Amino acid sequence: MFMKMQAIETVSDGKPLFYVDLGFESDYQFRLFVDKSFLSKEDDKWFFQLPIIKCDVMQTDNNKDIIVKPGNLNMFYFYIMAGDKGKSVIDCIDTDQPYQVFKFVVNDEYNKMVSTGALIFTSSDKVKIKWHRNGRLYFYSPAKGTTLLHADGKMDFISNNKVVK
Question: Model pTM?
Fold first, then answer.
């Protein structure tokens, strides 16, 4: 199942640019600029689907801007929400090809929780992520597990008591 993310449009030097801020709402950790070729327009809003297939990544000198343009990699997005008054942690990322990762955190001061996310760029068609979280978890949410992300948008959850290949 593909996930949609809304991009914000801005204009720089007369050229439209599209981005999403990742991390703290008031002080983002990364601004992800997405090439227009990955976007679609619905009801006057721009969206892109995750994962992004056939892309390349470049980080600017300020280390806060990430540019995604057409290329040969796949961009996977993973976010694990913490429980109330808790935190989430990405313990391990594994692929069958080399990868580049950009981790970010979202601090929800109202619920006193810190959640973790990551952008993973790799030529692999799947990524395995082992994670854990604490705090007050709702609706029988697991405290730990392994998630497999696939380039076709499929996501599998594997409880930690099962063997992962």
Answer: 0.91
